[in-house]
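note to self: dont lose this again. the chain is below, predicted strucutre after it. 104 aa total, dont forget to put it in the shared folder this time
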Amino acid sequence: MIAVEIAGPGFLGVAADRGDAALRAHVMIRVAPRDTADVSHRLSQMSELTALHQISGDYDLVAVVEARKPDDLERTVDRIQAMSGVKQAQASVVLPRSFSPRFG
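---
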């Protein structure tokens, strides 16, 4: 498990991607301001989480989660979405390095 340290309001410690997972996703999370610390703490307890950032904009937090199988990744995102204090969570799966979009 990689620890995520909450260093203070607006500052969350970040762990590097483990690199041993087949799938990685960035999960954009919206929370009520009063729930940010509690949600951040509960997210940091998830073994699938490798990074957590407090951000500005439409979302409040972005979590990086990893899994070996698509079903495991889906279950992890579902757990985040169902977490008390989470208003909304939107996941974007990181594409493999070999992916090369063709434009034009």
